[in-house]
Design goal:
With about 550 residues, the chain is an alpha/beta fold. Helices cover about 30% and strands about 20% of the residues.
């Protein structure tokens, strides 16, 4: 029987003190035996050492250091100050070495990437390095600019110094290691990829409504709380208690068991807690888009494979069939749905039917932030009975409490047990708990406000339709998105309104479109008036066709 070859994995992490002897062995093997330098051996004096450790799938075998790279910080001093005296304030890459048996496997490339990420993380953008003459093309592949006139020799080896822009190195590597068949495991304290902020927020100032600014680019409630929160100075200095009162209030209002609810300081906090539990790297997660960009951003950060399904696809193909087609390629690990969706405000069709199609192992996240405008479509009362469905609800948009950051999830304890273990104590502030429990005592007020909101949205849709705007989908929430007329530029319209104290937002996922959130009747009238003025005075000039620049002759008069 043929012996099965062991699977090799390379671990990238800082070198431990106990492994310094292994560094000396590598230096002896490369410098003394291969290059004929330092026959007596030399010690590595750099303080930042990043190593590549080889390990196989046999738990009996220990990790083996097979390569390393050294970094000299500016405060440590450079080894070659006489060669490049003007570079004293830059990091220096030193001693990139890999044992012969482990070369041509991407180890040196990954160590180079580890150096670039280290320098980027501490605020640098350039690093200097000295390459052996025969390895200059390798360094040039990372954007190194060699300084041939400053070459120097150590023993029989000629080195060419140069500088590298580390911001050009990192884009070579993504969350995966597709550049090589070798499997790497990143164990450094800083991430493998540069920090990329999640696109979020709007351009409108956070001002008092009395200022006259119309913040129609945010989806927070336009109406006030039905009560004035009373917070004493003593309460401000008291730690939060267990949120039992808040959970009971939610359970009564939603007709779900209280033990199937977890509260949190906003839906984003829940998302960033749950997704790392649910989706390990390489998970295949379907997201109905366009939607909140936090979802695809976080899944990308976690190394998941995001499969985006544009909501317009569901207008002609049932969700069940779309998921079945995706599942034929490989199992689906997760489904993320915002219902009603944002920015279109439309309901996702065929959602209930999809539950029976997906495997029990497929975790389903349903964001019902705006479901109060279509409560009959809510999954919340069923979620706690389903082993793989979780409903997340932000209380900011429909309850006018964005300032206290409050949300909750409802699900089966099959899902909630792991989430509770990683939910911090005292997660929700005392003030947020108190206000959150109080809002459920004013159901009649909120129902009136929701009816007024829908009336204002309907009026907005009708008025803009007369101006040539086309509503996207069939919005049921507190906002609507529009394709602007062909002769109008969406960005120009946004800038025009901003100059007049009215803020609306670009509708991502749809070309030349805008999203407008519900406002009071007075502010809705004001928005429509300003948009009408814009359409009447600003027309996008069509591109001129070559050879047709002359004005058309005027039609002769019949008189």
């Amino acid at each position: 029987m043929q012996k099965q070859k062991k699977k090799m994995v390379y671990v990238i992490r800082f070198v431990r003190k106990r492994d310094i002897s292994s560094i000396e062995l590598i230096r002896s093997r490369v410098l003394a035996r291969e290059l004929g330098q330092y026959p007596g051996g030399t010690a590595e004096t750099s303080k930042i050492l990043i190593g590549c450790y080889a390990r196989d799938d046999d738990p009996v075998n220990d990790e083996q250091l097979v390569g390393y790279v050294a970094i000299n910080r500016p405060e440590d001093g450079h080894k070659t100050p006489h060669i490049v005296p003007s570079w004293r304030d830059l990091h220096e890459l030193r001693g990139l070495m890999v044992m012969p048996k482990h070369r041509q496997r991407g180890v040196a490339r990954m160590l180079m990437h580890a150096v670039s990420r280290y320098v980027q993380t501490v605020g640098g953008d350039q690093v200097i390095a000295s390459a052996r003459r025969e390895l200059v093309p390798f360094y040039e592949g990372f954007g190194c600019r060699p300084w041939w006139t400053r070459a120097y020799t150590v023993g029989k080896v000629t080195y060419i110094p140069g500088d590298l822009d580390v911001t050009r190195i990192s884009p070579i590597f993504g969350p995966s290691t597709a550049f090589t068949k070798t499997e790497f495991s990143w164990h450094l304290p800083y991430p493998m990829t540069p920090y990329r902020p999640c696109p979020h927020g709007t351009g409108s100032p956070n001002v008092d409504p009395a200022s006259g600014i119309v913040r129609a680019d945010v989806l927070d409630a336009w109406f006030p709380l039905p009560f004035r929160p009373s917070i004493s100075r003593d309460e401000m200095r008291m730690t939060p208690q267990d949120p039992d009162r808040l959970i009971r209030a939610i359970a009564r209002a939603r007709d779900v068991p209280p033990e199937n609810i977890i509260v949190a300081p906003g839906s984003s906090a829940l998302m960033y807690t749950v997704f790392p539990i649910w989706f390990p790297p390489a998970s295949r997660v379907v997201v109905i888009t366009p939607t909140y960009q936090e979802y695809t951003h976080l899944l990308d950060v976690l190394g998941c494979r995001v499969i985006e399904v544009h909501e317009t696809v569901l207008e002609r193909t049932p969700l069940v069939d779309v998921l079945a087609s995706i599942g034929d390629e490989a199992p689906i690990d997760g489904l993320v749905v915002v219902n009603p969706n944002s920015p279109s405000g439309t309901l996702v069709p065929g959602l209930f039917e999809a539950f029976d199609t997906l495997d029990i192992a497929t975790r389903i996240w349903i964001d019902e932030t705006y479901i109060e405008y279509a409560p009959e479509e809510s999954v919340e009362r069923l979620a706690w009975t389903m082993p793989n469905v979780l409903v997340a609800k932000s209380m900011s948009k429909c309850w006018a409490v964005s300032g206290v950051r409050l949300a909750y999830v409802c699900a089966s304890n099959i899902q909630l047990d792991a989430i509770r273990r990683l939910s911090p104590p005292w997660w929700v502030s005392r003030i947020a708990q108190r206000i959150g429990a109080h809002v459920f005592e004013h159901g009649a007020y909120y129902e009136r406000m929701r009816m007024a909101t829908r009336e204002n949205v309907t009026r907005l849709i009708d008025d803009l339709d007369r101006l040539g705007f086309t509503v996207i989908g069939d919005p049921v929430a507190s906002f609507a998105s529009f394709r602007v007329p062909e002769r109008v530029d969406a960005d120009h319209l946004i800038d025009w309104l901003r100059a007049r104290g009215i803020f609306i937002k670009r509708c991502h996922g749809y070309p030349n479109s805008v999203r407008i959130a519900a406002q009071s009747k007075k502010n809705t009238t004001r928005m429509v008036r300003e948009i009408r003025d814009f359409v009447g005075t600003h027309v996008r000039v069509p591109p001129q066709i070559p050879g047709c620049g002359e004005a058309a002759p005027s039609r002769p008069s019949e008189s």
